[in-house]
Amino acid sequence: MTAEQYLSARLRQALAEDPRTTELGVRVTVRGDHVLLSGDVASPERRAELEAVIHDVAPELTVLDDVKVVPSDAPVGREEIR
Amino acid sequence: MIRIAAVGDVHLGEDARGRMRPALDQLGDCADVLLLAGDLTRHGTVSEARVVADEFGGLPVPVIVVLGNHDHHDDKPDEVTAVLRDAGLTVLEGEATTIDVNGHTLGVAGVKGFGGGFAGKCGSAFGEPEMKAFIRHTTVIADSLGAALGSLDTDVKVALTHYAPVPDTLRGEPPEIYPFLGSYLLGEAIDANRTTLAVHGHAHFGNEHGMTPGGVRVRNVAQPVIRSAYTVYCVEPAVVEV
């Protein structure tokens, strides 16, 4: 594993175990000085918390945030299971 | 026709209070029951369970729930269960419940489930105590799911779990973590008991549609997968053979 992979693993573990985030559904990709976050969270506040935890562990990285707040609208249509 | 609404992995907390409610207000028009496939909270605290109880309490249809791994994180699953039951939700763990829908019966058997992996690529109850405990937890839960499904004599039978019973609905997740996402033992219990539909959550990067080796439809309803407050499946009760 390269240093980038170890760092990526540490950041993912921090997002999963830090009580501010406890997110197991966010992908972490480190490329040089940048870290890309992607996936879904349940509220806008939680996007900001992800960046705060990443910054605590690796303040030298620039965060690129592709995380979305998961839609909570009523569904369109339905599925008939035959 | 029985209309089954379902969602999992809503991960509610104080910051997300009320987000589901506008969509849930329309639920009575489009569904006969709502299934919640675990991970209702972030940390499994009693205060988060109260947010869940407020969000899903008082709906016009029965709400049937299993807990997920997040709902166990604070080591208070009994307290979380009590808060949800006080709000009128039916919480299942190795149990089954039956409701009547327009003259037909719907039975739902529920367990949290656990990991272990899928046939040919799974752990065994062998070696260190930690490994044996891991697999035995799955075995005990799968056995209780089988018994709960077997206890049902209804027109439609649904298995509700948090962890996945098949790998089909995990596509999109890294294959290396499949053993932490589900177990074939859950699928085997589903196949052994003439189940109509299996609903689970847990795999945020998975996909919605799958099938057990025995031909039972499986649906991953994790909210990041279905990308709405819930989704609705319509099931025709089996025609009685004369």
Automatic annotation (TrEMBL), chain A:
Residues 3-71 form the BON domain. InterPro entries: BON_dom. Pfam families: BON. PROSITE patterns: BON. It comes from Saccharothrix texasensis. This is BON domain-containing protein.
